[in-house]
Amino acid sequence: MGKTTSYFQQVKIRVRGVVRDRAGNPVPGVTIVEKGTQNGTVSTNDGSYAIAVNGNAVLVFTVVGMIKQEVEVNNRQKIDVVLQGNAVQLNEVVAVGYGTQNKKDLTGAISSVGIKDIQNQPASNIETLLQGKAAGVYIQKSSGAPGGTLSIQVRGRSSVNAGTEPLYVIDGVPVYNSNEDPGGSSYGTYSGTNALVSLNPDDIASIEVLKDASATAIYGSRGSNGVIIITTKRGNKDGANIRYNGYYGWQKVANKLKLMNGTEQAEFFNDWAEANSLPQPFANPESIGKGTDWQDEIFRTAPMQNHQISISNGKGKTQYYFSANYFDQQGIVIDSKLKRYSVRANVDEDLNEKLHFSQSFTFSRTISNAVPIADAGSGNVRSAAERAYVASPIVPVYDSSGNYVDNWYNASKAESPVGSLKSITSDLVGDNLLGNISLNYNIVNGLTFKTLLGVNLSNRSLKEYYPQSTTYIGGVLNGLGTLSERKINNILNENTLRFTRLVNKVHHIEILGGFTWQTEDDDSWDALTDGYPDDRLGVSTPGSATGVPQVDASYSKWSLASWLGRINYQYKDKYLLTATFRADGSSKFGTGNKWGFFPSVAAGYRLSEEQFIKNINFFDDLKIRASYGLTGNQQIGTYKSLPQIINTVTYIFNNQLVSGSRQTNLGNSNLRWEKSGQWDAGVDASFLHNRIRLTVDYYQKVTHDLLFTINLPANSGYTQALYNTGTLSNKGFELDLNADIFNRDFKWNIDANYSNNRTKMVSLGLSGSTSLFVGFPPGAYLGYVYEGVFNNQKEIDDQTVQTGVKPGDARYLDVSGDGKLNADDRIVMGKPNPDYIFGINNSFSYKGISLSVFVQGVIGKQGKKIAAVFDPSEASSNKSIDLLNRWTPNNPGSNIPRAGFSDRLSPSTYDLISLSYVKIRNIQLGYNIPSKLIPRLGSVNVYVSGDNLFTFTKYTGYDPDGGSDYPTSSTVILGLNIQF
Amino acid sequence: MNKYIKIAVYGCLIAASLGFVSCKKFLEEKPKSFLSPQNYYKNQSDALAALIGAYDGLGDNSSTFLARPLQYLTWYCSDEAYTTGAANEKQLNNYSFTADQTYILSTWKQMYDAINRDNIVIDRIPDIPMDDSIKQEYIGEAKFLRGLEYFYGVRLWGALPLMTKEVSSVDEAYVARSPVSDIYKLIISDLEFAAEHLPAKSQDGRASKGAALGILAKVYLTRASSEAADPGDYQKCADLCEEVISMPEHHLMADYQKVFGPPNEFNAESLFEWQGDRILSPLGEHSILGSFTMPKGIKLFPNQSASDGGIVCTVAYFDLYNADDYRRESTFVSEGVDFSGKHLTWQQFPTPFPAPCWKYVDRTATDRAAFEFCGNFIVLRLADVYLMRAEALNEIDGPGPEAYSMINAIRARARNRDGSSSSSYPGDLAGLTQDQFRDSVLHERAVELGFEGKRWFDLVRTKRLVQTIKAINPDYPVSDKNLLFPVPRQEMILNDQLTQNPGW
User: Fold this and answer.
1) Å from B377 to nearest chain A CA?
2) What is the value of pTM for the model shown?
3) Which domains does chain B have, with CATH numbers?
4) B416-441 pLDDT, tens per residue?
5) Domains of chain A: residue spans and CATH
6) Which of A354, A555, A768 sits opposite B33 (nearest CB)?
7) Of A803, A792, A802, A731, which is closest to residue A760 (Cα–Cα)?
């Protein structure tokens, strides 16, 4: 026997190669066995393998979800194999932290969003496209402006004062989508350009959302808000590929407010003036008529367009993907727009048999011409949306001599909405370079070393100007202008060792270990001055301005150093075990607490590999899994653990001003991570020949040691400190369902998700907070219970709680029952989070025609009405037509108080309104033009796509999804994809 | 080639490991946009800057501590002032306030903010390499400020959390109240240290030996009638007063009017002042005491365009002044010309009360900033020391010649008016019983020190607060609990070791 073996060994040769799927993606975890022997190996994460075999052997490639393939070696030393899938979903490879994994082998909760789920939809940024696409990911629009920000929460809000946004890992480089804009004027109203706008959505190949601790703990101190891994497109083995895709479309405001017309407002003003013992301003309201619809003056139908050309090739040793993109979105508010130019170069090359080189780079320039999206200085500057309802319909846009009308009855800090928007300058130019280069070295069979250098460089400059002639604040200050600039350098280095081995054909082991560091410098300056000589030159002439210049500069830096490790163990493809560990050292924390340790463990059991399940002959795949782990959050500013000394303090000695210093905050050398412990139990199943695929998860996430801005006893000398205290919990249920109802010529696929999440404060610890309540989520608040109006004097006389009220005034509930109405009568109200959210995408196709309808909803959330529009007590803005039904002596049965009522208490249940909605978020109709009609082109697809077209809601503002400062839009685009 | 790659790879690994060794440095934060204690308190100018910061803690930007809330508490809660101001000021005025009162909270907060700044100077300066005598002087100034601030605190609230070290971590904030006797011990040792190390004459605005001795005298006088009384307190007070009075740097001004107002600041009678000056510091250190005490609707200076005011004098307090008392016309605007040129008496003013502004405005100024916003708050002046000595001597063994000489010196100065003409009022006192003399001192203090932030403390020290308020406004719910202010409720919520004062 021994002799025989040695005889065969003499003729063994080394065979290596790469296993890929049909799409050209590498397939890891493929078992490669020399047929008829025990000799075997497993393909690594990049699909490569190496094995020493007999020169005339047959290699057997097997992996779950793909068709087994046998290949004769025939003395070849390099054999690349393409495996065919046998079950569409099971062979899917998904990105996990620091690697990829077969979907079937996952033990953590990860949602994947593929390219087909996000294509052909108009969006400047990737987050917009994720809305409603993944269970457990709750996305709201903060602003509808071109390049506006969104708020993303993965599995609820897990922090109170620190950041709640997930970590993004773009081609391996971790980045936060934090604001990278330079500071504006102290009237700063433009901040909040979405930093991810610099990333061109057309370049994205796939998105994975890492949700449970097993998946996120490898990102340690940055994992507790979830991690979104974005992978961009790369060249593949299919060969040369030239593509054009582009669209052109039109946007208009999704919903207009229902406001009073001129006559109606004049009548309201008259009633209000009477209630305030003022002369009635409008003798004949009827004569005013409809007046001006300021929403029509401020909002417009705006075009948007996007054009992209990409070239990719993957034959031979080098694979590449190059793209160039131009995106141009005019805003639905006059004078707002965003442009982006971006290029990308992703290259992979096998330098030799052991060394693989890879790089991904994108450069983009975004140019944003913004209008105000936030109120500043109590009306000194108003947001675009607010202008539309503050202005009075009674006055025209222009007076008889053609000048803008900039005053009206009871106007406060008025300016012409149109004139000011058209003349305010806010030009933000941002350059961003994001990418990495890496080397992958195969040290010995199954052991590879990878080193990666990543950069994220951002450079943004802002010019802001409020003209003297057309803006209120510019008029007060004789022109106000700001110039500012900000540069952010983020550098990353990762070094990992990966070891994979199949032991005795049944034990599949993968071990990953590494060290990484990342550091960021943030350097900015800004210069603000007023008293500009000429509006026409505006901010370009700061040197001639007569105001006192306020020039400021700031610098900050943070560093993070980490060790990480992961072990994946699979036994017979049946039992799965994953353990991860990360140690993070962060500069942001106190001297004694720089390092935090984040372990996780997860187990999976593929029941479908058991004979008794196979006997049922129903499940194609059935896996139960559970995980527990610790993750952290470090989204706080820099230097928060240090006490700060300012030297701007003055006093007077000998009748001269002298400068002093003072310590402004308490250092906290014990400042440390916010820690979330999360467990998750889930089931992945597919059945009916893989036509129905289901994932359900239940989780509980408890965040301890919250990074809390606590109120300190004043005897400390300070009133606030950042301190780890308090507990917040999130728990919820998630369901992802994907079904191929029909899959022949006529295809119908349903992709649906549902999730509910409950957030509540478990403990406030030492915070001393008066705005958070144990048992309620952050965002709930104290308010009065509104009980309608006093219809007549008798109703007033019949009670003693409210004194000094008149018929038509508001009634509030004496909750405490003490016979008085005071702060004790407030109850906790408001539902800042929805009961549940869902998304359902139906896609149909028949031959070359495709139709998809994407419905998305948020149910059970509450917000506040727009106060200025719904409060009858004051008259400094236009009002909702709902207030036509206000209490008047002739309309005594109303539940809306009279104009100018005097006993308003706010907030109260009067202001409360449901933010639930169901939207037809997107509808797409596409057609693949048969290639015989256009023989020289590879394939041509044309489509029409409508976004945010229909909303079902009771909300009375612009859009329950957000955009209260810049409304959201409805968009229709016509698109074209050509592949040569 | 592979060999080189291997070397490169292993090199990277080793470099990464080395990187970890130097992690400590990698993770250290070195701020560049602000100073931190690690790179501060290194030299004499840092020490001086920190000391200036401590002085600034007395009051800043017309809004904090001595500059506003403390005056609201003591003026409105005594029989001196009425307010036409906001509801939260009126609560103090009509005794309807609770432990939620905003100015009680802000006074508490700002006092401790100031004390922490003092503690930082006292803790940090000893390690700074600098001239030792200057060092002791700086520490002396900080201890003077700390003693003064705790003295205000112990009179407003009684027992207090006794913070004597810079607070450097959150855990150190949760401190229980120390007994009144312990607070006084710290105040006395701080002021004794200050008196020992401060020069007799310092820069204008800085604490001097006379200031420290004078405040210390008041500390003993106050403690003498408190729960922490010591038998020797009155004697110590009398002795300290004498020491101050005998200092060549200090004497009574001949003309009462020349004691007050921006042109006369830091005169020989003044011992310590909090400063406001809108001319020197348009945005920072300005005083609102002048603008708040002016009569609404009355024109007082040439370029007057605004009609400030809000704090007026109660009729009862105004009536404490004899019509012939020079100090009445030196304190109040009781008649004037409105903006239309009409002459009005205070009864005809838009707010029909006398306006106590003359001690805080610059009568010589022509524009608003100089006229209204540059008045200092005199923390202590020599006339107060005279009257303290009179009070203390009377308490020891009744009114002797020395006690009479003290109070009569003050009365004589008032009688002398501006020197060009004199009046017969007020005449010298003689032949009083101990009780009569006690009443006379209190009355003398009222008219001599009116609207100088002393009255509430005098009424509490002499146990006359409740009867005095009740006599004017029988409806006000004033009682013995009002001899102390409540500990702010918010502080009690934040720090469960705090206890409330009786009755609150």
Assistant:
1) 13
2) 0.84
3) 46-197 (1.25.40.390), 289-375 (no CATH)
4) 999 888 889 999 999 999 999 999 99
5) 2-86 (2.60.40.1120), 115-256+299-371+424-783+831-871+906-979 (2.40.170.20)
6) A555
7) A731
